[in-house]
Amino acid sequence: MAVKKSELYSTLWKCCDELRGGMDASQYKDYVLVILFVKYISDKKRNDEGFDIDIPKGCYFEDFVALKGNPNIGEEMNKKMAALAEENQLGGVFVADFEDDTKLGKGKDKVETLSKLIAVFQNENLDFSKNRVADDDLIGDAYEYLMKNFATESGKSKGQFYTPAEVSRVMAEVIGLGNAKNGKKTTIYDPTCGSGSLLLRAMCETPGGATLYGQEKDNATVGLAKMNMILHNEIYADIRQGDTINDPQFKESDQLKTFDYIVANPPFSTKSWLKSAKFEDEYHRWGEGIKIGVPPEKNGDYAFLLHIVRSLKQTGCAACILPHGVLFRGNAEAQIRKYLVAEKRYIKGIIGLPANLFYGTGIPACIIIIEKSEAAGRKGVFMIDAKGGYIKDGAKNRLREQDIRRIVDVWQAQRDVPHYARFVPMEEIERNDYNLNIPRYVSAPDTEILQDIDAHLHGGLPKHDIDQLDTYWEVCPSLCDDLFCDHLTRKGYYSLKCNPEAVRDAVTGNVDFRNQKEVFQKSFAEWCDSHRAQLYALLPGFAPKKLIEQLGNSLLAVFEVDKSLVEAYDVYDSLMNYWGETMQDDCYMISSGGWTVQLYTPQPASKKKEKKAATPEDVVCDLLPVPIVIDEYFAEKRDVIAAAEELLAQNETQLAELVEEQAENYLDEDNFPDGKMTDANIKKRMKALDKRTDADEIAVLQKYLDLKGDISLNKKLIKELKYDLLTALVVKYADLSEADIKRLVIERKWFASLALRLDGEMQRISQQLTSKVSALAERYAQTLPEIDAEIADLEGKVAAHLKQMGY
User: Fold this and answer.
1) Which of 36, 128, 226, 497 has the lowest CB atom count within 10 Å?
2) What's the rounded mean pLDDT across residues 92-108?
């Protein structure tokens, strides 16, 4: 049975999270990730003698497994980790101390914790000896998944080692890494690399790989980064420890080494950063020699940006995440900003991000893109205001797939988009004294609700409010006329044509709305047709990541043309979400094992007793879900079971109602021997009752017994029917041809699921418009004079009642 990556990772996290007890996630991660590392290098070395990590005798994962239950497990694990580090010059990488009683407990508690931790990675599906398919990075993805969860759990001050993958993807794409053509000669540098995730994401965008360089101040995090590089098969990545500003590690001839590409997410607004670095910097990052002042000591943001500028080749490109304050703060920072924008013209663009994206802070941030090669002829700065594109994800916000794609598409096209993106000429920036605050240049959409005093006084719906819904009227021209008409007495004002309760029916019944829904569905059918042959032709070994890239690109292209009310990026988001939730696992299973299906019975975690399947609900098939096969081949059996279950539910309801109705009468437990209302006791009582005088009670008791009998028979029948269906399912799954499997998975699972999601998008649009129109009608439903008259009427009634009461 092929493993589903999503389930594997979530199981890993669940097990690890349960084991850590009261230990902070920022500490526990060191233990978990080290054991994951040992498991990986053991699997890899056993199947690849050329693997560049040497494992001393007694230091394979199996040797760690042998320590489970050993009273000296912590000490022995430390010895093995030390031997691994010494053999491979990995000093300082393994910071976890398996003998630390303060974190792991003492005696039996520590032995149990460490034994269970090792057991987590004994999962038979965790075989890292080779990737299952060409683009399947099982171990790297697992490491990233765990680090993301550790960052989420680590709290505000301890999650800075990890840059969210979504932001990393944006940065990697906007600096043009897809155009890097020199393979390993291409250099990528991260001066504050943390766990190395941002560096690795950048490298993934290159067509032929790259050589990676990173520096990180925190020693424990350097260990994470080095392990991360090895786990992603980047063994020769150069990761060094040290304070980047005061002790840069990458130098050539006493000057900073320069790189082709730089990505960075430095700590925000570092205080007291100026230590061994001087006001006249020896590396010429700032100082009188280059006519630029020193960044303020209480805010180190520009120190990192200037370090990046100095470390970038003249043909290079960089992206750096910084707090929004760097765009508009004054004094020394204003002078540096002017130097970068006007004098050097290094800043090519700025992307404003939503607040609360990062694990170390909740403040909004931006990505500053530096490009030197075209600086001399640069006429302005391209700005994107992407602060509104996100989804809430637990305590943090997260960029959706559509947000990432929209940012990258607009950046690469360098096109103006109303209320979202704009190329700002240098002259305009100069007029604003080089203040780069994005809202100065990219206006927000008009969403303000203006209260029309005249409408509140005299009635009618203001034209301004209706014009705010222009997006809908442009696509459905007749919809506005179906909903609104001119006010009978007030020029320039409108009335709602229907009752507020009928707005939804008016929307869904409009001819243009129905037509554009048909266009929407036709576009989806066109997209399905264009990829049907491709999906049916998928063979073992295909690359799922390339497939979803093709599917996403074409879906976006199709829906950008159809001009329906549903935005093309919302449709794209639906596809990408379905990919992440379901289709990705399906494709990796197909790529790994072909179009094969297998029914199996999930076993409880305890595994004390094997669970046997007795009904269709007890078995699952990951690639081809059981309900699809039942609907396709056993609809009649399904309907018979459904009818039997409905009858059972009716009988159980009748029985419950009877018991409740007669609980203090004929079905009172005190009426029966020992207070027990068993069938035998009921029958004894019925025999003892007089058929003439106790006829009502006998009828109630008989009805009770009859209902119980019907319920018992029904349950037996349902059990037999379900077992019969289960038997038929087992036979059918075994008999399914590859052609059958393809048809059911592609048509009945993938296309059908996507169609359902897209139909939900249309319903959302309908509900959204209904809500807006209803709110508008309600806002001006009563004029002020009408409200005053109603108040006066109520006051009169209250006064009359008080008078009757003698007041």
Assistant:
1) 497
2) 86
